[in-house]
Amino acid sequence: MKKKDEVIDEIALADPPALSKSRNTRLAGLDKLRDEDIDTSDIPEADEDFWSCAVSNPFFRPV
After folding, report:
1. How far is the C-alpha of 19 from the C-alpha of 25, rounded, in Å?
2. Residues 28-36: contacts with CB within 8 Å, 24+ apart?
3. Could you report the per-residue pLDDT of 6-19, keeping only the tens digit for each?
4. Rounded to whole angstroms, how far apart are CA atoms 56 and 62?
5. How far, in Å, CA of 2 to CA of 42, rounded?
């Protein structure tokens, strides 16, 4: 059930909307960064405990 203040926006993945000039500029700047220069301190490592709970995708079917 949709809440009163909930916004649902659908995007056609085959024809996504164009990015703004400022967004393109920001992405170009990020693209120039080396991996070592990206701050990932707020992202936890995927350690052995994480992977011990992993399961195979039940919907995957090889072609």
Report:
1. 10
2. none
3. 877 788 888 888 89
4. 13
5. 32
